[in-house]
Task: structure prediction
Amino acid sequence: MTSVPLDDLLRRNRDWAAAKLATDPGFFDRLARGQVPRALVIGCSDSRVPIDEVLGCGPGELFVHRNVANIVAYNDINIASVIEFATSVLHVPDVIVCGHYGCGGVREACTPQLHASYLGDWLMIAAWAKRAVDQRLAASGRSLDGEAYLRLVVEENVRLQLTHLSHLTVIRRQWERTPGLPRLHGWVYDLTTGLVRVLTDTA
Ligand SMILES: [Zn+2]
Result:
């Protein structure tokens, strides 16, 4: 059989499945019967932030939605349907927006002129976080640049997306049905330490 560029991934998959079965023969049978994830995580698509792995979770534990810069857009039927399924069908009690320091999407959103592209259009939403940080710094007479500045925008972007989340019909309807649930959380993952920092537990 000729080798194809992704052969090694398929080999790793077979090894992974065999290792799972070796330690837990009922693993796949159990997962095939259904899922009861404990949280919905909305994270960034960045390959360095595999959210299940950094939280030490295996298959079945987290319901996950990822996009560039962990954005919650008002007109995004994709994320709305993910949230609806997670909260109305799976009854997930917690929704986490998890950003990360060193986010290329947030860095791009901070450039003076976003490119005329689909990515540029998308990142316009995160650019509101930059404006909020700029206003706050100006009001306090402080100035920041480089990574310290970008870290503030990453954090503000998480808060902004939590606010968007709290405005979505799908969340407000759920709060009417089950007051207080889902709970909303804002986290940031630090690529340099591997640790998650809690920004806010309410929205
Ligand atoms: Zn990112």
Summary: Residues 44, 46, 69, 100, 103-105 surround zinc ion (CB under 6 Å). The chain has a mean pLDDT of 95. The chain has two domains: 1-34, 37-200.
